[in-house]
Amino acid sequence: xxxxxxxSIRGELLFLCVxxxxxxxCAMALLLIVWGPAASGEKIFTFAALLALSCALISGAxxxxxxxxxxxxxxxxxxxAVAGILLLLAWPVLRAIGPEYLDGYRIxxxxxxxxxxxxxxxxxVAAARRGLLRHRIIAVAxxxxxxxxxxxxxxxxxxxAEDMFxxxxxxxxxxxxxxxxxPTRLRAERVRAVVAADPAVIxxxxxxxCAAHGVKVMxxxxxxxxxxxxxxxxxxxxxxxxxxxxxxxxxxxxALHRLLDLAAGLALLAxxxxxxxxxxxxxxxxxxxxxxxxxxxxxxxxRHFMLVKFRSMRVDAEVAxxxxxxxxxxxxxxxxxxIIRRARIDEVPQVxxxxxxxxxxxxxxxxxxxxxxxxxxxxxxxxxxxxVKPGITGWAQVNYPYGASVEDAxxxxxxxxxxxxxxxxxxxxxxxVATVRVVLFQEGSR
Length: 446
Known about the structure:
Blueprint: E1 2-4, E2 7-9, H1 11-34, H2 41-61, H3 73-97, H4 106-129, E3 135-140, H5 146-153, E4 165-171, H6 177-180, H7 183-188, E5 191-196, H8 204-212, E6 216-219, H9 220-228, H10 245-248, H11 251-286, E7 292-298, E8 304-310, H12 335-342, H13 351-356, E9 360-362, H14 369-378, E10 391-393, H15 395-399, H16 406-422, H17 425-440
Parallel strand pairs: 3-4, 3-5, 5-6, 9-10
Antiparallel strand pairs: 1-2, 7-8
Helix pairs in contact: 1-2, 1-4, 2-3, 2-17, 3-4, 5-9, 11-12
């Protein structure tokens, strides 16, 4: 795993992204230099760099950096086609920055993009099946056994990501550590990390030597958190928030987050305005009641605010105002409501809450006071998510389907607290890109 701005990313996926960006950059620069009319080198390389960045973002927004997508060739081809269509939709904007004659190269760019995407992923699939991408680790006993770390050594889905970690040895801390954890030997055997329930059982000088040779020594809890991108709620201490990045953020970072909220909110309104008008008219024609749905939610530091959404249920959805969890194929949902919930269009009016400052664009899902009172009694650290503003989208929303039970809320909290612990503008950007994927392919909607 590679730590990037506080967030753990699989090293091979980061490598894939970089390799593809370089390939796209070189291909476009070569196309402009060899086949295009004379143009300044600065303009050529600037456009090539912009195209490479756009291709990487579009690939991420289409789920093409999810190894489970590569497991089935049909799914990979569909995602690649969707990404290509998104590139064509973005082409007029890109072309306005680049040379004018590029209009004649749309098909070539589409074919080149698809070829690079498919070729690189097929190579990675072949490498994964041969075990070349597998991370070799050593487990130190004393609570850390193969069965204890096994759930974190496998991906959440089948395919090339399966068995990405291999436990090559389980050591007893009582004896034999000095020879077994020799850094030179570990590097020669391609061991990436040493995982222990309590790293303190490994002498400090040995931990320092391993770190100096690029071999990570980490606790079992840290290993699971980095691998699964969620925290172990039961392992959190009472003072864990003191070291959380969201709590330690300074005024400059807070201002940048607010600027991102305003920019993303205004951009979303501008892009979706025609769709919002059509949706409002459809809701009004489909069922009686108001177009918008206002409901009290819990925000940062437990403060209440009125959340605004498109109405997707009947006006009598809750008898006597009693809070009820939404369910799969909920009969209270209207015909138009079913469509806009699947496409997440009902969430867009929350932009007004973002602009007012009640919410952020990225953050934990805002919950109703009734549910918060119930969940804080059943789930430890539930109130800790309130140290940041709730968001339209968030780390839990893009990693776990819509929750409708206490157990779902517990799992989503594990992702929310990971976000609180590692919050950064980089992680916000990853979440925004992943949100496009969730909306496009209707992941986890109800």
